[in-house]
Amino acid sequence: MAHVVFVGLGFGGLYTLRRLVDEVPEGTRITAIDKRDRFVFTPLLYEYLAGELEVDVVAPRFDTLIPSAEVELVQSLVTGVDVDERRVVLESGEAIDYDALVLAPGSVPAFHGVEGAEVHGIPFYSFDDAERLRTTLRVREWARGERPACVVGGGVVGIELAFALAEVLEMEGRREGVGPRVVVLEALEDILRGMSESVRRMTRRKLEEKGIEVRTSIRVLEVDEEGVRFENGGEQRFDVAVVAWAAGIRPNPLLESLPADRHGKHGVRVERTLQLPGHPDVFVLGDAVSYPGRAIGAPLPDTAQAAFQQSEVAAKNLHAWLTGRYPDEEYQYGHLGDFVRVSRREAVADIRGVVLDGGGASLARRAAYLFRMPDWAIRTSAIRQWLG
Length: 388
Known about the structure:
The chain has 388 residues and is of the alpha/beta class. It contains ten helices and 24 strands. Helix content is 29%, strand content 26%. The longest helix is centred in the last third of the chain and has 19 residues, at 304-322.
């Protein structure tokens, strides 16, 4: 009996698992491991923060998405992978042997060695992060209008988070006061690196309309309980109610044990079939992948879009491997578009070169994410909540 082990149930792992379960080879045993108890639809965490969508849509429990009769679900942190012995090791020390491994452990926040950032900064990459930020905002000076919230990082996560924070202020009628209530600090010369100039221009205009201050070319030096110390021509200090850390991610430390090539600060190189070179029984997906193929290419984006696309290829090749066939489905990333959420009714979108904003962009964004939700029950709930 072949034993397939999944490590990590984000977009890559969960969707590969669900596709495999739909057509699982006879005699296959499946174990799925994740330290969390729920799947997180990360592009919709902003809607959860703003009260637009509820937990059943943004973070449904794994036991509602995975059939228990066919999959053994283990909630644990995986601390080691031995691809030579075909074994994964749990935090408890328990070892689980496998015949095939789907490795999709995701990534972890990158704090870039900034003093105090890991202790006092709140990342925004998981459901627990969103819950922690919501709670903090209720009790800190931001809730009383005394200090602004600071978002470190002007990529998609940081900008959408800044918009969500401004939206919460609007809903609660707390925009009045002196100075901006939300400030974004970005290390580069501009926000939204990698997006088109049209998207950046539209987004900058929306940020200004919402009263969100953006400071670029900022080097953050320290984060403490009271604020941020940074450098911009000279050293300065900024007292804030909360620091939301959205300054990027780095590969999961679990990848360090793999005998694989790496690409800078990105993940590992895999074959175009998403198999680990030299270990065809190991499939790697999501943020853990740097680039597919033998020639070094541009690293894949660390997005749900890329992981979702990989899941179809991985499931087909895994099924072929389990049934004694040669895995020949090749992965080719196809960029479908970029979205920046502004509010409940507004967004900025770049759909294959067509750039739009406002309500039309918001509808396009919702439709794109609706299509990627795990099942129809969640889609129906999302539609109901969006219309409500």
